[in-house]
Each structure stands twice: as structure tokens, then as C-alpha cells.
Write a structure and sequence with these properties.
three-stranded antiparallel β-sheet, 332 residues, 3 domains, 14 helices, alpha+beta, four-stranded mixed β-sheet, 15 strands
């Protein structure tokens, strides 16, 4: 049965393999005949067929690494592991209920789903992260590819929350990945991300208030309604400096899930600006990571606002007591 160089040096086959898994084409190129391959893969033989064109150089139970490797080889040279399989390689707990291995392949390539391998053709194949000899999608892509295959909101929430708690991603990064990716299966993760975005926005507002307290700028009110002189509602900005009519908006990519969301945000800002309000916008990540820049932007806005006539806008009646408390208050 043994023929050629591989028969004299069986270890050479393992050197050609990836984690002990090898493509049939590689075996044939190395001089192993198709008959020999079939014989060694029979019941009781030393090898096993794992997937079409993919051979395991052992006959034991497949490990998780075996499955990941076989899936990657099945997908071809550009295949990238993603979803739950990718998350396991990033150090997340392996899900026994999510045993399929997802591979991403170029859109122009064709591979059918087979056995434990789920295949997704993608026009935006990610730059892979190397995990040993395996190519893995970045964490955000793995998370959203896994989330799009979940039907239960609680499980999706638990998955995305665990990644946020680990600090591997931000809500905005997940939102951007969801917006740029496939629309299939997005209802559940979209709903969860809206929920998480609301929580993140609340946290960002706390960061913003603590940061602003160090600025030395006039006192700021939060989440108050601003109206015209005749009482027509304009907006409820995250932060409001009444003396100079400056609004501070803590933005989030989650506010732009759809064209309608984006349009609503743009209309609100345009409405404030039409009434002469100066609007300063920051992302939660900027407040957290670039506080000096944020304070510089706010100071510049206040300075600019101080040089122009204050526009005819005011607080809604129910918020006037807040204005009286904070009027003239300047942070040390």
C-alpha cells in the first residue's frame, strides 16, 4: 500500500497537514494514490474522511480543533472561521448547543453546507486574525454572525453582553458591524443592540457629566426640554447650557440602524440649528478615550456662542426651576 516518498517517511504527511488534517488534493500531489486513500479511510483504517476532500490522519473521535481545521480546509484558501466557532478560538466558552462550524468564503466561490459545516458566502470577507494555523474573523464579526443565527433574545443578549463586559467590543462597533453586514437574521440582534445602546447611552451620560464638572465652564443642565419663545418644542438635548444656548449631544451609531433613524437624528439637529442653537456632538468612545479633545470642543463652542446674540429659545416651563438653581453657577 505504501508507495513513494510518503511511504518511506510517513511523518512527512503530518508536516503537510494542518493540525493533522489534510486535503485529498494534497495527498494526491504527494504521491498517495486515490486507492490508498480509500483503503486507509475504510472502517478500521488509520485515517478517516471528515468532509468532501478533507481527510483526518487519525481514526479517533474528532476534537474541536479537528472540526475547525477541517471546516477551514473544506472552505478553501480564503475561508475564515466565524460565529460560535470563531468565538471559541477567541477564548469564549464553547457552546455545546451551537456545534456547527461557520465558515465565510468569498461571494464568487461556491461550497455547500455539509455535515457540521455551515457556509456563508460574503462580499465583505474580513481580514482574518491568526489563531495558530487557523484564520478567524475579528470578534465583532464573530459575534454578529453568531447572533444572526439566534432565535432567542435572552441568549443573544447574554452573548453580546459577555463581550461588552470583557471589553472586546463596544456597542458602537457591534452596531456598525450589524449595519454593514447581511440583513438576514438581524431582527433579534438589532433589538438587543437597541436595548444595550440605551444602557450604554446612560453610562456615557454619566461619564459626560463627570467630565464636564472638571471643565470650568458654566453649569450644564441635562435632558431638559428646549422650546421657542411661544412654547413650541424644539428638542431635548443630552446637555444644555442655557446662558449661551449650546446643546451637547452624546451620539451613538445605534441611532442610525436605519435610514429612518438617521433621518430622525438629522432632523432634530437641524431643528436646533435653525433656531440658532449651537450643537456639539460626541460619541461615547470619544468621551471615554479623548476627554481633552471633548473639553476643547465644548470650550470652543461656548466661546463662539458668547460672541453671537443669544437666540430666542428658552427652557420649557416645567424646567425653569432647574434654571433658577443653576443660573450663574460656574464650575470651579
Amino acid at each position: 500500500m505504501k508507495r513513494g516518498a510518503w511511504g518511506d517517511d510517513p511523518s512527512a504527511l503530518h508536516a503537510l497537514s494542518v493540525n493533522g488534517i489534510i486535503r485529498t488534493a494534497t495527498l494526491l500531489d504527494f504521491g498517495v494514490t486515490s486507492g490508498t486513500i480509500s483503503g486507509r479511510c475504510r472502517n478500521g483504517g488509520p485515517w478517516q474522511r471528515i468532509l468532501p476532500g478533507v481527510i483526518g490522519l487519525h481514526n479517533g473521535r474528532l476534537s474541536t480543533t479537528d472540526r475547525h481545521t477541517a471546516a477551514q480546509l473544506y472552505g478553501g484558501a480564503d475561508a475564515v472561521l466565524s460565529g460560535h466557532a470563531g468565538l471559541a478560538l477567541h477564548g469564549y466558552q464553547h457552546s455545546a448547543t451551537m456545534s456547527d462550524v461557520l465558515i465565510l468564503i468569498p461571494h464568487e466561490q461556491h461550497r455547500r453546507k455539509f455535515s457540521f459545516v455551515d457556509v456563508e458566502r460574503s462580499s465583505r470577507l474580513p481580514d482574518p486574525v491568526g489563531k495558530g494555523k487557523l484564520r478567524v474573523a475579528p470578534v465583532a464579526r464573530c459575534l454578529l454572525d453568531a447572533a444572526r443565527r439566534m432565535s432567542r433574545t435572552d441568549r443573544c443578549r447574554a452573548l453580546l453582553t459577555s463581550a461588552l463586559q470583557r471589553g472586546d467590543v463596544t456597542v458602537d462597533e457591534l452596531t456598525q458591524e450589524l449595519a454593514e453586514g447581511s440583513r438576514r437574521g438581524t431582527a433579534v440582534p438589532r433589538s438587543v443592540l437597541r436595548e444595550l445602546s440605551d444602557d450604554a447611552h446612560s453610562v456615557a451620560e454619566v461619564w459626560a457629566q463627570k467630565l464636564y464638572a472638571t471643565s470650568g465652564l458654566p453649569a450644564m443642565m441635562h435632558n431638559v426640554d428646549v422650546v421657542t419663545e411661544d412654547g413650541t418644542w424644539i428638542a431635548r438635548p443630552d446637555g444644555w447650557m442655557d446662558d449661551v444656548a449650546v446643546a451637547w449631544e452624546i451620539d451613538s451609531l445605534a441611532h442610525h440602524f436605519s435610514p429612518a433613524d438617521h433621518e430622525k437624528t438629522m432632523q432634530r439637529r437641524a431643528r436646533m440649528q435653525r433656531h440658532g442653537i449651537i450643537v456639539v456632538e460626541h460619541l461615547p468612545a470619544q468621551i471615554r478615550n479623548s476627554p481633552a479633545m471633548v473639553l476643547s470642543d465644548l470650550r470652543a463652542a461656548v466661546e463662539h456662542a458668547s460672541r453671537r446674540p443669544r437666540p430666542p429659545v428658552r427652557l420649557a416651563e416645567r424646567h425653569l426651576h432647574i434654571s433658577q438653581v443653576t443660573k450663574g453657577d460656574v464650575r470651579p
